[in-house]
Write a structure and sequence with these properties.
about 220 residues, twelve-stranded antiparallel beta barrel, 14 strands, about 0% helix
Amino acid sequence: MPSTVDTYADYTLMFERAAGQHWNATQAEGQWAWEPQSATESRIRWGHPHTWASEPHQYKEHFRRDGDWVMLDGWEGNGTFYELDAAVQWTADGDLVTNRVALPPGAQHYAKWTVPPPLGGCYGMFALGTIVEQSSGKRVAFAHEQRWTNVGVIASPHLPAAPALRQTEKWWDDNGHAFSLRVHRDVFLAKGYGMAYRIQNYDPASGAATTRLDLKHAWTY
């Protein structure tokens, strides 16, 4: 019988030629498109609809499946590749402490391939290491904290309601500044719709909610 277990690809559409636009209340703020490379590797391009066709240095994240893990090798941007080298990383329960299991160094273990059960299924990921700019050898320290939660069906102002995963993430780095928290947000991935179904940003200093974006258009190409 076919498996009924949901996978990361069911929610992200990473192995489909899928795309979408996310908007604030009145205008488009971003666009994404998956570019599958093989049965185990895919790249996602991020940009803005107004400059999508003219961007000379496209920003693309490189993901691949490795067994029950989704790995992030790094990303393209500014005409070069930025390689992620996680020196320390682990997975745990949603509190990032209970049932902690160390993971091998190297590419970042980004998410589990198998989606946790709905309404309460949650796990945490943490990585600490270096980003290496291939064109120059420049090194940037980073830390990435994630909590993945199956939140069940959520509503959208533009699209039908859908089951969703919530990625609560925090990102620290020292790229041109002291090592500090730079990103704090909730990203919702909807089954059958893909990336950026909802994005809620928070102020890194205070934790107060700031901008919210919602997927308005989703298509295949």
